[in-house]
Amino acid sequence: MTARPLVLVIAGLLALAAYAAPPPAPPETLPAAMSRQVEDVLALKQKTDDAAAALRKWYESALDVLKKNAQAKGDLDAALATAMERERMSRDLTNQEKANLPLASLQVRNQFDQARVAQAAQEKAATVTLLRGYVATLEALEKRLTQKADIDGALATRKERTAAAQQLSNATPCPATCWPRKGRSPPPRPRLHRRLRVRRPRRRRRPRRR
Length: 210
Known about the structure:
The protein is an all-alpha fold. The chain has six helices and no strands. It has one domain. About 4% of the residues have low confidence.
């Protein structure tokens, strides 16, 4: 039961990675480039949905095994926990909900959550790769249209390329060295504590004897 989710994740990753391959021939017009991008986005979504459905199917089969084992042992709480998991498998659990799970159910749930996180990360990486390829395609198309003296087409391509580049910037995590960004404030700097001066009490002067 521990190896099957990893196999499903790897299969989903290979599907997403194969999807991000560059197109065989560059498009000749902006509408053709935009149409290809829409097709690629829809295909990526279908691959992602298929991988998520396969993982959910594995989790449901794992819950069936847990329920069967709980019923064989006469463990009512464990059997009820599997039924509850089916209703909330599409969302993250709170710390309290995880603490109330039996040990066997918790182990399977942790595997399921780890696979979900891996799939989400790969989906984001595939989306970034797709946007980068689209920006590069539009850049080449803009240059080609300019060489053909199609200035209106080149300007429209540049506008689309700027919008795609903005989407790519939003999808790409910003490292700590890229501050400041528009609309965001830089991270706060740690405050340096000043060295406190300890004031010593003043000595009282004794009055002089006359």
